[in-house]
Amino acid sequence: MPTTHEGSVPASRGGISAGSLKELIEAELYMPFPFLSNPHEPEAMAGVENWLRKYGLTDDPDVGAMIGYTRPAQLASYNSPTMNADMLQIVANQIAYQFVFDDRAEEIGRRWPSRLLPMLCESVGILRDGRPPMTPLGAALADLHRQVREHCTPAQAARWAWHSREYVHGLLYEAVAQTDPLRVRIGLCGSIRSLTAGVEPFYPLCEAAQPGELALDELSHPAVRHLRRLSADAAVWIPDLFSAVKEQRAGGVINLALAYRHEYGCSLPEAVVLATRRINDTIHEFERLHREIKPELSPVGMGYVEGMADWIRGCYYWSREVPRYADTAALPVGP
Q1: Start-end of H helices in the chain
Q2: Each residue of 135-151: pLDDT tens digit?
Q3: Which residues lie below 8 Å from residue 199, measured CB to CB, with a gap of 6+?
Q4: Are the C-beta atoms of residues 171 and 196 closer than 8 Å to each other?
Q5: CATH class of this structure's domain 21-327
Q6: What's the Cα-to-Cα distance from 311 to each of 35, 59, 305, 315, rounded to whole Å?
Q7: SS3 of 3, please?
Q8: What are the sequence ranges of the domains in the chain?
Q9: Which tens digits make up the pLDDT trace of 189-220?
Q10: What is the pLDDT, as a whole number, of residue 195?
Q11: Could you say which DSSP state residue 126 is in?
Q12: Phi then psi for 277, rounded to 5 degrees?
């Protein structure tokens, strides 16, 4: 059974004087989902370390340090609190892989966007055509694809690969956006962020974790499709609030809070409040639509939608704790 965090309470709107940006976010953000974690988290953490080491991804000390302060197994535990140990390990491995891949793509893309092409084309070739990998990152992706095929139905694995290719393409869009940041308005930022979020590749794993396969008409129901979009947006925009300080210092562009700051010429705390209002509206809409569609869903469909809610929940509680975003707690704001 998943475990609860007795000391945490859902975030609520306003009403207190915030001393830091982290406290401001916690005061303003609407979070109806209580904390849960997966009891298999320790095994997943050890498994991630071994898997990354096997493919040489942590041979670089900087990458090893990044994994240490990013805690991918913790994020997997919070986002997938009811998954069995095998499925949780795949989720944790994929989160770790995406952090390594994303950080490397961001570093290369910010300096030399065209040099991203071999890296991204290798990934697409592996995911779409089953081509053999040429790099350690490619070898890790090929093994991750193998794990997914072994634990998912062919249809679920195909959806996983398709969403993963979308994520790869999004990193190229982000690199192009970085070359002319003044043109990146809120709408464009949101479109690119929906791709680079890398959340939707995990939803086929939520499918596979259910006791049966979802019917196609249920999976493609307009309300279920909209719930996927709402949950993916909320799940990635919440970390954007906590990572805004880090991204601003690094010259990042594709971040919801920074997009509001650039759009309105306001301070970072003011931009965070504006972005939080949009997230709150998204979560409220998710709840409303979930209530409406609930009578029509099968037990398997309900479990699938609850998996989407788990990603909103997990990204919030992970973002509050992870050392990757520690600067958020150190930035003072006014009352």
Answers
A1: 21-28, 41-54, 61-70, 72-79, 85-111, 116-124, 136-151, 154-178, 186-196, 203-208, 216-219, 222-250, 256-264, 268-293, 299-321, 327-330
A2: 999 999 999 999 999 99
A3: 231, 232, 235, 236, 311
A4: yes
A5: mainly alpha
A6: 11, 30, 10, 6
A7: strand
A8: 21-327
A9: 888 888 888 899 999 999 999 998 899 999 99
A10: 86
A11: I
A12: -60, -40
